[in-house]
Hints:
Distance between the termini: 57 Å
Structural class: mainly alpha
Number of domains: 2
Radius of gyration: 19 Å
Number of helices: 10
Order of helices and strands: HHHHHHHHHH
Amino acid sequence: MTAKQSIHRAFRALLKQLPLSRITITQICDEANVNRQTFYYHYQDILHLVKAILFEEISDEIAKGRAYDTWKHGFLTATTFFRDHHAEFMNIYYSNYWEEINRHFSQLSHQLLTGVIEECLKTNAYRVSEQDKDFIIRFYRLAFNGVMSEWVTEGMSNSPEELLAQLEKVVDGTMCTALSRFSKR
Length: 185
């Protein structure tokens, strides 16, 4: 096992037990059996480590789901990851770092939705101003992130599949419809 893998494993073990705000680099290094210099060789700080772990694990998988017909894959991948890593995720969610990490999730959502919107524009030959396109992307990003955030704070009682089924009933077909309404064809 490499030092980087040891750091990941140690951090994940600590995160299952402690809120992110209470985990220190010293604890990670002790648990991973590496020195601080090794930690700083790989990561600037704990936030950088969190982002690396979270986004290495889910970003690539979610990015596969950005096509208009398969946006569901990205949503299901994210919610399944959160449920499967519930203790760790909740220790991040209720930490002082959540705002920064959520900003990173929002950027990822924005990229995914941009891909969906671009595909819909291309498929339907819609001409929409950048301002209108940005509004539509922001609207859906806030809707998706809001639904996910509420699901998390309410204890993830519905399965990711049930949550997706509800969201599908509301969202399917609406992105292209919104673009057609803004189109200047």
